[in-house]
Write a structure and sequence with these properties.
This protein is α+β, with helices and mostly antiparallel strands. It is built from eight helices and six strands, in the order H-E-H-E-H-H-E-E-E-H-H-E-H-H.
Length: 279
């Protein structure tokens, strides 16, 4: 059980139902591989299995914590990329396209900002292949609805092998959507219903407001329960991580680094756009 949930039959049952859905997906993946094998194309096909976020549960999906953005990734390519090997290198979804292009012998265009990890795939290395792939910058803006004017919850974070540093730029806002709109950035289900009835620390962890800065020692607790950002002994670490994160964001021309972050909330939302048809 994740430490951010109480251990009870309701939540265990909800997690078990989710596990059954994962098994259902796995069964269909097996059928796809069987179809490829029957067609004689299995060994000639790059198979990539991943997701776009963590499980659709409170404090996970859509939230900048380890279980929300650390997604699964399994890759198979016949005899060239065999199974049974695990790599620790950090990979971003923007690295996918240049990787597939390189594997197909095509040069990636200069407009792609990702970095191919094909050499790691084709190696026989376990653990770390490229130790420079040890940083990941994460961000969120207008991911959800359920606040006045559908304002977002802007976050930036940097993940290292040991630490997760998070900046919540609008800590006065509700991170999972406002209470009066039902915390709409959290999928419905038994776990959400149970936590909403408690108004205890578990409710606070999933739906409550958050501090402006958070630091978690991922190497020791991936559930992100102990925020050490306010401890004096971590002040130097906090400053170092923030400087590194902001340097990376400036390199990518993030408007929020130039004081222009409000523009994200100015874009028309899906709920405010009216479609017009003409005969």
């Amino acid at each position: 059980m994740p430490k951010y949930y109480p251990d009870n039959a309701t939540i265990r049952g909800d997690l078990l139902d989710y596990a059954v859905e994962v098994e259902w997906f796995d069964s269909h993946l097996g059928k796809m591989l069987e179809q490829l094998e029957a067609a004689g194309e299995l060994e000639n096909t790059i198979v990539v299995v991943t997701s776009d976020h963590g499980m659709p549960f409170p404090r996970v999906k859509g939230q900048i914590y380890e279980d929300g953005f650390h997604i699964p990734l399994a890759i198979r390519w016949g005899a060239k990329v065999k199974g049974g090997r695990e790599l620790e290198d950090f990979v971003n979804v923007r690295d996918f396209a240049p990787t597939w292009l390189e594997l197909c012998g095509v040069a990636a265009p200069e407009t792609m900002t990702g970095r191919s990890f094909a050499p790691a795939l084709l190696s026989q290395t376990r653990g770390w292949f490229d130790e420079t792939r040890n940083r990941m910058v994460i961000g969120k803006e207008r991911h959800d609805i359920g606040r006045p004017n559908d304002a977002g919850y802007p976050v930036r974070a940097i993940r290292t092998p040991e630490w997760l540093y998070v900046v919540n730029y609008e800590p006065e806002r509700w991170p999972a959507g406002n209470p009066e709109t039902g915390y709409r950035n959290v999928d419905g289900g038994p776990t959400k219903d149970f936590l909403l009835g408690g108004f205890d620390r578990f409710y606070q962890l999933s739906f409550g407001k958050r501090p402006a800065e958070e630091i978690y020692r991922i190497a020791y607790e991936s559930d992100c329960m102990e925020n050490v950002a306010g401890k004096p002994e971590h002040a130097e670490l906090k400053a170092k991580l923030r400087a590194e994160m902001e340097a990376s964001l400036r390199k990518d021309h993030d408007p929020r680094m130039g004081g222009d972050g409000d523009k994200f909330d100015a874009f028309p939302s899906a709920t405010s756009v009216t479609a017009t048809t003409h005969g």
